[in-house]
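Technical annex B. To support the medicinal chemistry partners, we prepared a structural model of the target in complex with oxa(dethia)-CoA, based solely on the information shown next.
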Amino acid sequence: MARSNQRKATITGIGHYIPEHILTNADLEKLVETNDEWIRTRTGISERRIEKDPDKAAAHMGTQAAIEALNSASVDASDVDAILVATVTPDYMFPATSALIQKSLGAKGAFGFDVSAACSGFLYTLSTAAMMIESGRVDTILVIGTDKMSSIVDYTDRNTCILFGDGAGAVVLQATEEDHGFRDFIHYTDGDEDLYLVQEAGGSREPASKESVEQRKHFIRQDGRAIFKRATEGMAGVAEEIMKKNKLSAEDIAWLVPHQANSRIIEATANRMGVSMDQVMMNIDKYGNTTAATIPLCLYDWKDQLQKGDELILTAFGGGLTWGATWLTWGGAK
Ligand code: UT7
C-alpha cells in the first residue's frame, strides 16, 4: 500500500437527510403491475423514502444534510471555503443548487458549483474537492449528494418507478497532515447515447413543450437490462482496478461502500474484490436508489461502526455513462 505524508483531504463530518414518507413495494403494487417478491429478488429494495412537500427539493434536503455534517465536524458555516453539490434533480436548471445551499447555510465565504454525473456524482465531486484541498488553495469543503428522484420518476412505468427514492448525504472534507483521508481515484465516462439512462426533455435539445409533457419525456427512462450489464462490469472492474493499482488485497479492505442501484450488482462487485458481504455497506432495502446520495447515506448509516484507519473502497456506476472508484482511509469522523 502506498503511503505518504503529504497534505491530504479527510472526512471530518457527515450528515444525512431522509424524508419521512415511506413508499413500500405494496404501495407500488397499487400503481403498476408489479409485486413485492419481484422487486425484492431482482433489486433488493423493500421500500424507499419520498419527499412529499413540493417546497422541499434538492437544495432543502442538501442543506439539512450539510447542517448535520457541519455540526458533526464542529465547523461553522462561515469557515466553509466551497460547496460542491452532486445532483441530477437540481431545484432549477440554474442557479445552481450549491448557490441555494450556500444561502440557506449562511456560508458567506464559500463559492460553489454543481456536478452532473448521475449516480457517480458523489464520487466525481469528492475527487474534485479532494484535489482542491490537496492543492493547498482551500481548507474546508462541503461535498453534498442530493436527489429528489420522485420529481423525475414516472409512476406509471414499472421499469423505473420501483427503483428510486429521495435523500441527501453530505460530508465535510478538510485538510490533514495525518496519515488518513482520500488516497486515490479512478473515474470513467462513456457518452454512448444508445445506452438509455436519460431524462430526454427539459434541456436545450428538447425544451419543455406541450408535446414533450404529453410524451412523458421529462421523466427518467432506462434500458434496465443493458445498464445492468454495463454497471456490473463497470463497478466490479473499477473496484478491482483500484485495488490492483494500489496493491491492496481483500484483507486490507475494511469496507466496500457501493452505489445502491441493485443488490445483485453490489454482490458481483464484492465477489470480484474478494470481500465478504459482512464488509459491504448495503441499505438499498430501505432507501432504494437515491442517485448522488447513496454513498454518503451508507457512510452515515455505518459511521458508528467505522474505525479510524479503516480502508474503504467506494464505487459507483450511473448515467452518462459514468463510473469510478475511490480509495480512502477513514479518519474517525462521527
Ligand atoms: O443507478 C443507475 C444505474 N442503474 C442501474 O444500475 C440499474 C440497472 N438495472 C437493473 O437494476 C435491472 O435491470 C432492473 C431491476 C431494472 C430490471 O431487472 P432485470 O432482471 O434486468 O429484469 P428485465 O428488465 O430483464 O425484465 C425481466 C422481466 C420482463 O418480463 P419478460 O419480458 O421477461 O416477460 C419485464 O417486463 O421482468 C419484467 N419486469 C417486471 N416485472 C414485475 C420489469 N419490471 C418489472 C416490475 N415488476 N417492476
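Notes passed to the chemistry partners:
The chain has two domains: 8-179, 183-329.
The longest strand covers residues 166-176.
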